[in-house]
Fold:
Amino acid sequence: MNMLRIILASVIVLFVYGGANFYIARRLYQWLGLLSLNINVKVYTCIVIIFALSLFLGFSPLPSGIRGVFAWIGAYWIGIFVYLLIFTLVTDFAVLIGSITKLIPAPTPQSVLFYRGLATVLLTAGVVSYGLFNASQVRHVSYELQLGDTALGGMRVVLISDSHLGAINNFEKNLEKTIAAINDLTPDIVCIAGDIFNDDFYNIRDPNRASNLFRSIDATYGVFACLGNHDGGSTLPRMIEFLERSNVKLLSDEYVLIDDRLALFGRMDSRPIGGSGELRRRDITSVIASIGAELPVIVMEHNPSHIYEYGGEVDLILAGHTHKGQLFPGGLITRAMYTADYGHYQKDSGSPHVITTSGIGSWGPPMRVGTNNEIVDIVLR
Structure:
């Protein structure tokens, strides 16, 4: 029954996606015709099909070089597709309203159709260009928290997540300036809340350089990480080796005591893509209880959908995963899906604080619209 639902859902998604691509392609073809360009229909159709299918061919069993080309095309296309679809719908709706209100005569003049297409193309180009630029920027976000009755004396925790090392045109090229920005904050602890990698370790362009840069993080008590859903699959052993030689302490449903002043847990992700070998997510309720109430407890939990699992025994949860939607209007979706999709959240005074970051990198399209790559600076009083 579950398999039938998956197949049905997949068919619906493919039908909607295919229909949307056809709708966009038809509108663009009409506009190009108004420019008096002699477009070969067969060639145009093949180009549209390649762009539409690149999203899937990038994950196909094709030779790695060809698959890489399709993955690159698909990453850019999905971002362009989103805004082409939005602005095509918006401009079509504007023309429809104009026709209904008689502001636009019937039949619709070719000049109106031309400017409809021009507006769609220019608006899409503008938003996509901004998204590409914004994805290369890193912002700082700061919080100041009092954890229970314990005085932590201004201990500084820097949080990052979702670097997605190996993703298309992503965090790796910004790694040096990101590490420098982290060190400028003079952190006591650096926490990496999952999705350090992007499914396949071998997609990282220069692992040695990346490892050396991670080793250069200067934190009083060290750098700690938990695994996210993209930190799995057949190359997980290589990922773990990378963290070890990068002086990043991986916490998999285990904790460390930081200067006997707080306990820091790292959780296994519940749904790693491609599996996580022998590693399995465990119930750590009894382990947390054994720490005692005298020490604050911080938990790195990649996916904020799990925050309901913790009560007053935990003081702070650090999460990522959502990217805050990454591309507008994605944030509306994450806000509906997660109680704490971004920023600071606390259900009540007896519940843990939750800080969810939008992440330091991008997944899929190398763009950020309506969201930012960020480093989170948390001061614990």
About this structure: The mean pLDDT is 93. The longest strand covers residues 138-145.
